[in-house]
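Entry 12.
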Amino acid sequence: MQAIPLLLLATASLLSAGAAQADEALAKSKNCLSCHAMDKKVVGPSYKDVAKKYTANDEAMLAEKVIKGSKGVWGPVPMPPNPSVKPEEATKLVKWILSQK
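Predicted 3D structure (tokens):
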């Protein structure tokens, strides 16, 4: 009987890890990792710093910034617009970034 809960837990862990890898792959495919890294500032802030600063309540605003760009929030270097990112992809990326706490 204990094998079933363990199996369910293992399956959930694998699915979660797969989703995290898929979202990182999306970030790579949209060139986000050219300016951002998980745990250190590159040109833009690290994803961990973004996750510390914002909450799930900020998802829509952040998704818009992914697409339209932003300036002045993290210093003088602006984040350029990325119109190749579709709204649903931007939301997926933001959820993934905010999960990096």
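Annotation: Residues 3-29 form the longest helix (27 residues). Confidence is low (pLDDT under 50) at residues 5-18.
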